[in-house]
Amino acid sequence: MHKLLLLLIISFFSFAAKAQIGEWTPACYYDINNSRICGKIKWDVPARNIFKGTGDHIQFRTADSVKKEKISTDKIKSFVIKTDSFVVSHHPYLKEYPVLKVLLDNPIKLYVNLRVNSTPSTMGAGSYTGTTVTLGYWERYNTRYFYGENPDNITELSRSKFIEIMSKIMADNNGIVQAIKNKEYRYGKIDELVKQYKIFKEHPIE
User: Fold this and answer.
1) What is the model's pLDDT at position 71?
2) Contacts of 35-42 spanning 24+ positions with Cβ under 8 A
3) Which of 59, 85, 106, 126 has the largest count of CB atoms under 10 Å?
4) What is the rounded distance in angstroms from the CA atom of residue 183 to the CA atom of residue 140?
5) Which residues fall within 8 angstroms of residue 160, CB to CB, at 6 or more apart?
6) Which pTM does this prediction carry?
7) Number of neighbouring beta carbons within 10 Å of residue 149
8) Residue 142 DSSP SS3
9) Each residue's pLDDT tens digit, 37-88
10) 86 exposure class (CB count in 10 Å sphere: 0-12, 13-18, 19+)
11) Closest CA to 60 of 101, 30, 95
């Protein structure tokens, strides 16, 4: 019975992960003074471009009838689209692509940095307007994972450090940690690992 419940939960999260791509979405952002401004946000995942300058931006408007506003990342600290949180990093390594999606908000945080895949795809443009972790990203985007106490003090997660670091990040779940150490999860399956960790955390099975 417990296994059936877990499968149903996983199926629900997988369906939700495909939703809301390509639409203006009710959302909020926090400016550099930590003021919360809400309306509708659309964020286009940046593509690699030799002519691209530093920084990024979001598109914002307070209502459908209002003209959209382009807000650069040097004017915001973070933004939230549905249940997904994004932060702006000031790490020099990410000066061109400073937006990080928060995958896990633990004492040691896990982030992902997204860029549009340069390989042609039938999935459309790289607009991000509200999807949960996992499905969809990995077919469309190039991903780089980072960990640290905050978005300005981060280290890129390497394959060689995967077991060590992910075991520390998920230390509150002994079962998941053991699965990581047994190599049931590998670097290329971080999306599945995060999904499982969140499911067990939100819906523990005794």
Assistant:
1) 96
2) 39/63, 39/66, 40/64, 41/79, 41/81, 41/129, 42/68, 42/127, 42/129
3) 126
4) 26
5) none
6) 0.79
7) 10
8) strand
9) 999 999 988 887 766 778 899 999 998 888 999 999 999 999 999 889 999 9
10) buried
11) 30
